Amino acid sequence: MRGALVSYELRHTFTRAQVVDALTPHVATDQVRHGVSTYLVKYRTVDHLGAPVVASQLVALPDNGDRSLPVMSWLHGTTVTKTHVASARTDTNDHRAALLFASTGRAVSAPDYVGLGKDSPGRHPYGDPRSTVAAGVDGLRSARAAARDLGRRLERDVQISGFSQGGPAAMLMGRALQQEDADRYFRLGALAPVGGPFDISAFEKAAADDAVEKSGLYLAYFATAWNWMYGGLYDSPSDAFQAPYDAVVEELFNGSYEPQEILAKLTPAARDLFTPQFLEQVRNPTGELARRLRPLDTTCDWRPEVPVRIFHAKGDKDVDFAHARHCGAQLRANGAAYGLTDLGQYDHNGSVRQALPQIVRFFDAAAGRP
User: Reduced to 3 states, what is the DSSP secondary structure of residue 319?
Assistant: First the structure.
């Protein structure tokens, strides 16, 4: 059954002072109020084909004595390495996000997504809407079951935030909860995406034009993942990738390599990594590729009935600020109220560290918390 709890185990217990130490100097700590216990939770969900799989997540609970807890879902950004997730490492922005939110009194579900996590089988279906929403919603269900075993109760309203890849994921998951009755218990409470590529067609075109940081890495991950999931992008790696990269690129994105290892084996520029024909296909998608891109160009094309604030930095060189405006324009066209916060001249990863304390304040206000 989807969302069924497979197992959970205590990972770490942090006192309030240890939470502060773990966040310093990366994230402001003035909002830390409680110690936190974190758990590795494994649960049942589905992949991009709808086939049953086991996924993992980090669940963080505040050590504040409250039996009933507000709940949030944190959806992480792009990672090419299985173990670069909150459930496996404590030195990531995603683990810090879970600690911060839990230290404010919230239960936090931070799914690794399908195919990511230390023991997760198979590849990650990068950017696939179906498995993304499934991992998030089923993660909430399993977090609720684990919390129940621990004598805690998760409240119904879910505040959802996510960074980079997790920005569109947050909007997809929010729409699923509000409009598609994705769960009989949980309901949408608020949305706060950060640095999200909300117009994926424009993002991939910019990568093809070498107009984003790490363009070759992003586009190679996209190309290999989507060809594996859906087919049709290329028949042979040599159709899309130039030699000698065509002989190694698909293995490099199997989840076992560190980003530095991948960058050492691939040229960073898309123009030197891909064939001209493939880059032109990305710049002007047609047919099946265009159809698959459309749902990720329209993750904000609906009307949330909850508070929404988009966070983005104009200094972001990975995901242009135009993506935040794209999301806002779609929300506005649907009559939705939203706010947009410019985080300033921070780079992509720096922007999320600036955003986290502001998201706490936004979520507190949305829920009427002091």
Answer: coil
